[in-house]
Amino acid sequence: MERKEKVLNVRVSDRQRAAYERAAAVEGTTVSALVTTAADARAEEILRSVSTMTMASDVFDELLAGLDRPGPLAPSLDKALSGPRFKNR
Amino acid sequence: MEFICEVFTPTHDASGFDSGQAALDTWLRQAARDSDARNLTRTYIWHQGDRVVLAYYTLMPYVIERQTLSRKQGRGLPERIAGYLLARLALHRRLHGHGLGSHVLASALTRAALGARDLGGRFVIVDALDDNAAAFYRHHGFDPIPGHPQRLILPTAALDPYLP
User: How many domains does chain A have?
Assistant: First the structure.
């Protein structure tokens, strides 16, 4: 079981509080559990979206084929990589 | 004039960094170290020996997944491809207009290609914030992803011949 020792204070309106309390009662859970469960799902969705993208199967296949057969680099990038102005440490 | 590029640490001074895009400056000053400390991202900075940040970029692992309608449909085909997201790249105003953007990009792509060589990773993807940024990446050989015109991609294999 994950330890929950931190406190998160959140300001809500009367309407929100009443709605959360009613919903928690319907589910037979606590307001705290209701809110954190919803926030966990949203946080996971957001964090996942910054590190993952999903694409249609045909676009995916096209992309994969391109990765298998890379062409030569653009002249501008070739130039920068061939005569770098930086030293990577 | 040669620049030193290294991992962003508390020893570097980013307090005066001004790229002209407040969101990029704020992120470097306020969020980059925390994000790096959690190993979500890795941020590299450019300086000229005085540790004052003149440019930076942030890389992170990234996955592209195939959208499958059914388990059967995708059987035997690759389901996901791992690579890197070039999440941020910015130059101090002082460096603008000298063609150095290409070199900062080259620095970032070299890092990604070394990561790919050591640990795998088939692409570098970028999210262009506006049309100018998209044009910059297209000029450097990135291809737009069909259906996602602001998202551009470059195969890491194309960089192999340039690795030390």
Answer: 1
